[in-house]
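retry 2 of 3: previous attempt timed out while embedding zinc ion. Reduced batch size to 1 and resubmitted. Inputs unchanged:
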Amino acid sequence: MIVCPYCETENIEGADECEQCHVPLTDMSIRVPASSVEADLLRDRIEILWPKSPSTVPPDKPVGQVLKKMVAEGIGCAMVVDGDKLVGIFSERDALMKLNTDASRLLDKPISQFMTPRPVTLETNDKIAFAIHKMNVGGYRHLPIMFCGKLAGVISIRDILRYLTERIAKSHGR
Ligand SMILES: [Zn+2]
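retry 2 succeeded.
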């Protein structure tokens, strides 16, 4: 077995890429991290980023009210939650792409019409390298973080950049 250094899925010996996250596995098992920052990324888990408590809204909430809430709270995305089940994510990008110049006409429509349904999620114990890989592949700026099957938090590209900046500074001995 080769354990994927990104997502820790066990892959069969000789697999070219991880069946779970599709990172190339060739030479991965013998590869030494190129820098201390890379080693950090492959060791540290999302929980050390202290994922922020998510801002949640129900699926029937009008999109205009969701936007107001996002502005008031200074957040880039809202989690759409039905009961305690995560059903979608609504980001600044969804607002721009889906509302656009029709915004004034659409503000009373439910958020469920504009959210991205069934969002990609991560677990608190996933590695930071895996989060970066997911964001890169999917073009996501925010990812919901689950713990024991429940929505526990959200991380953004900014959280990752903050982490990277700290690690890079540390690796330069500052
Ligand atoms: Zn993997």
